Amino acid sequence: MSPLDAVVRDFLAHLVVEKGVSDNTSAAYRRDLARYVAHLEGRGRRELREVTEADVEEYAGALASGEATGRPMSVASVARAVAAVRGLHRFALLEGRVAADVAASVRAPARPRRLPKAITVDEVTRLLDAAGVGDGPLPLRDRAILELLYSTGARISEATGLDVDDLDLTPGRGSVRLFGKGRKERVVPVGSFAIEAVEAYLVRARPVLATGGRGTPALFLNARGARLSRQSVWAVLQKAAERAGLTAHVSPHTLRHSFATHLLHGGADVRVVQELLGHASVTTTQLYTLVTADTLREVYQASHPRAVSDRPAPAGQGR
To answer: What is residue 233's predicted lDDT score, i.e. its pLDDT?
Structure first.
């Protein structure tokens, strides 16, 4: 057994015995570190104390490019492999086998930032109109819950968890009390369109649906009079999207993204949107500002007379 294999063996034993990692995690680390050892030996490194920070950085790059594996690894897989390498070097330092942790500052490639997907205001209108098509209590309920999701930016779990008493439908100052992650409470304004839709549901639909249940305080009920489930809201939304002819994938989170994006397009401050969405950090909310910035840039480039060099200057204006 080579010195590199020996330290890997001891590190894996440490993970199992002292850290209590699962068999699956141990097996994944074993595969990752076997690949790392092969990479180091291919570059003439026989002991861990011979390894430099450049070696570790080169390995991380080889994983991402596919040089080390034959094909590029996903960002998540590279992150796991680099975590295994960092753990190995940290263990070796604590055990006194190396004088420095050369992997301490090496990071895996950042995950690509996924911008939220939103639909246009016109598409939202078509979606909400489609939800209310038909007779009986269910179209009234479906329109009400989608109107409320878009009006408040609520998560689907927050909307299905609402009780009747969580609503204040006073005209001009309507609001809803939402309970987010960790049961953190926030009060969010409700727009007039959503108030109108929810009131219609409460007066003309909920009493009918409630006759089949056991007196639940839940705001939104299913056909049996019980609290509406998250899966049922998904079905409501998919049916409305299909009826509205929306070809893009639409989910309850799409309405939340659209809520935030449309607010920012309308000039809302990002801190206000953060509070409305219930984000713990403004960094999460700032993803939406990237979407808005892209749109502003497109409008600017299409409209400003000196935004692009090949656009002729307006008459009477020289350089």
So the answer is: 94
Contact 137, 208 (CB under 8 A): yes
Can you tell me the distance from the alpha carbon of 226 to that of 211, in angstroms, rounded to the nearest whole number?
A: 10
Tokens 């994006």 sit at which residue? Answer: 261
- From residue 70, alpha-carbon distances to 18, 142, 258 in Å are 34, 50, 41
In order, the DSSP letters of 286-303 are HHHHHHHHHHHHHHHHHH
Q: What is d(CA 218, CA 210) in angstroms, rounded to the nearest whole number?
A: 10
In this prediction, residues 239-249 reach a mean pLDDT of 88
Tokens read off for 195: 């108030």
Contacts of 140 (CB under 8 A, 6+ apart): 132, 197, 200, 201, 204, 205
Q: How many CB atoms lie within 10 A of CB 27?
A: 12
- Give the active site residues: 155, 181, 253, 256, 279, 288
| Domains assigned to the chain | 3-94 (1.10.150), 121-302 (1.10.443.10)
- Looking at per-residue confidence, does 249 or 100 come out higher? 100
179-189 burial string, b = 16+ CB within 10 Å, else e? bbeeeeebebe
Give the residue-averaged pLDDT of 172-189: 86
pTM greater than 0.90 (yes/no) = no
